[in-house]
Design brief:
9 strands; 14 helices; 3 domains; about 10% strand; mainly alpha
Length: about 325
């Protein structure tokens, strides 16, 4: 019994120190020493903001006011940051001014165009509040506005959205009608190339795709809804080569700062695609952005939006990816 007393006393001491937060203090000190010792130039292209109890205590309130998040984003963008990941809790009280701080036009700068995402809130003057449902359907599926500059240019994925079912496109419109109105006028996109008069003939009625046909349903999800196929298919003569190179990867996507990220091969090729991945591996890549080895996929992959997908929908996409031809294409 006496031999066990020192061990028990040591255990009690560790428990008390842990509950008192002593280890957290030591951890912070070690982090400080590490960052002071390993000084190097800041890499401002991607910034991950970690919100810990210390900074919450210093602000004095949680959730933080939205203006604080907006100020933080503005400061980081001003310092040259192109991608920002942070924890933001929108259960805090809101107002139109605070929301508008985060409702600016997202801008994509390319050689042939400068695209600015428009205001999609129901504001009548600067958003889509004056558009009727059919005008919105035409804009989404065909790229035609009801007035002004009639054609909507890239990178809006019309080749995929043309296949969106009537039910799903109307569900999107119902959601857009439900968000708060924000007055935020965005400059029109600029195109330094000719745009076509239309992207194809008018889209008529589009039926739902039955989930009972898992492969066909997966193709619909990977195409018109999530447009995985567009991002993972290279272009040939200005058009996505779905017929010969569907999902083979290698399509460059600019995350900003002049860089370019090549999308991966998601065909069932075992050596260069996802043929050697288990269903669970593919599911983690889609919903969590993780490769089988645990490494993180570049955040240009919108896995954060796919996290809430239903299992049956993810399984349908996996079934579709298993069904397409395996193509050897090593993307580096």
């Amino acid at each position: 019994m006496r031999r066990r007393l020192p061990h028990f006393a040591a255990f009690c001491l560790i428990a008390v120190l842990y509950l008192a937060g002593a280890f957290e203090f030591i951890e912070y000190q070690l982090f400080d020493v590490r960052f002071r010792t390993l000084e190097r130039p800041a890499q401002s292209d991607l910034v991950i903001v970690a919100i810990d109890p210390k900074c919450i205590s210093e602000i004095g309130v949680w959730p933080w006011p939205r203006e604080l998040h907006a100020d933080l984003v503005d400061d980081l963008i001003g310092a040259g940051t192109r991608q920002i990941a942070l924890d933001i809790d929108f259960s805090s009280r809101s107002n139109t001014i605070a929301d508008a701080r985060l409702a600016g036009g997202f801008e994509i700068e390319e050689e042939h165009f400068t695209a600015r995402s428009p205001n999609l809130t129901p504001d009548v003057e600067t958003g889509i509040g004056a558009w009727n449902d059919q005008e919105l359907i035409t804009a989404i599926r065909e790229g035609l506005r009801p007035y002004g500059s009639l054609i909507i240019g890239p990178p809006m994925p019309f080749s995929q959205y043309r296949g969106m079912s009537d039910r799903d496109v109307r569900a999107i419109i119902a959601y857009l009608r439900s968000v708060p109105e924000i007055s935020n006028r965005i400059a029109e996109s600029e195109y330094r190339m000719p745009l076509p008069p239309a992207y194809g003939p008018p889209v008529g009625h589009v039926e739902d795709v039955s989930p009972d046909d898992q492969v066909a349903y997966g193709r619909y999800l990977a195409g018109p809804l999530a447009h995985c196929m567009e991002c993972h298919t290279p272009m040939e003569k200005g058009r996505f080569d779905y017929g010969n190179r569907n999902c083979v990867g290698g399509f460059p996507i600019p995350p900003g700062g002049g860089a370019s990220v090549l999308t991966g091969n998601i065909t069932p090729d075992r050596e260069t695609g996802v043929g050697g991945w288990s269903d669970d591996d593919i599911k983690k890549a889609i919903t969590r952005g993780l490769r089988p080895d645990g490494s993180q996929i570049h955040p240009i992959m919108p896995y954060r939006f796919y996290t809430g997908m239903k299992s049956k929908d993810v399984n349908a996409i996996i079934a579709y990816l298993r069904s397409i031809p395996a193509v050897r294409n090593q993307v580096k």
